[in-house]
Amino acid sequence: MSFDTPLVISGPLRAPRQMLADQEYGGHSSIHDDAMAEKLGFRAGPIEGPTHFSLFPPLLERIWGQAWYERGCISSHYLNMVVEGEEVRAFAEMPPPGATRTRVWAEKADGTPVLEASASIGPDHGETLLEGRMAALRPAGELLILADLQVGMKGAEDERVRMEPDQNMGKLYPFSLNQKLAVITETSPWYSDGASSPWGRAIIPLEMVSVLAEYSSHAARFPVKGPAVGLFADQEIRMIKGPLFVGETYLIRREIAALAQSKRTESYWVRTRIFDAAGETQVAEMLLNHATLKDSYAGYAKAEG
Length: 305
Prior knowledge:
single chain; alpha+beta; Thiol Ester Dehydrase, Chain A; 10-stranded antiparallel β-sheet; two-stranded antiparallel sheet; globular
């Protein structure tokens, strides 16, 4: 080739749907409820960050083929919230032949950045975007909401999870896979028709891997003080022996990976390892930064008063 010009591929503009308006945790509404979001200074309940992950598989399949589903990783820092009615487009840099890592991102129709991320295929991912961000964290200092957490703290129990097509995923995710597939921004027959899939089984969409990994998280019983409202600030989903399958039982183990705080938030990073049903072979992993809003916790007002 006579040029080494970096090239970028992109998908079409899509309008993601808000499906968490009725989400509940800790006995209260979440930031995805319009009234709660407005109370905390946001214009409306945002669409959950991993919803935008569905925009990327068409691009990453074009780059890496089937390997993307089996050992791919997306490592994302969320930049700006999206509300229903706004359109979003995904972008990916075309890596050189043989490369196992590239840069991806998403923007609103007007160019406002939604997320930045690294995408890669394993087993050697190099340093992902979030591994770099976590390594650069400053000491958390004195925490209030997260005072009882410690790095290395493990979840209270192993959690058994599965996702059936019509299974309501509970208070955190009050919808089913089939309801999500009816409105998902990028659809594939592989998500519902096992006969069409290279693995002979229907696979769980990338954004719904987040649901699989989170819907039972209350069982970890991490001692986070509340009530308080949080949001996803950073998220990485990594396939090790993927993809994950609809109707398959998995075992989850959680661990606090990092603690941090900013002027507005206290954050705890949780590493969620997903194993086969026997708990012997790890098949996937999620790293998630839960940013808890200080203004949503009454204890901060009392401490400042």
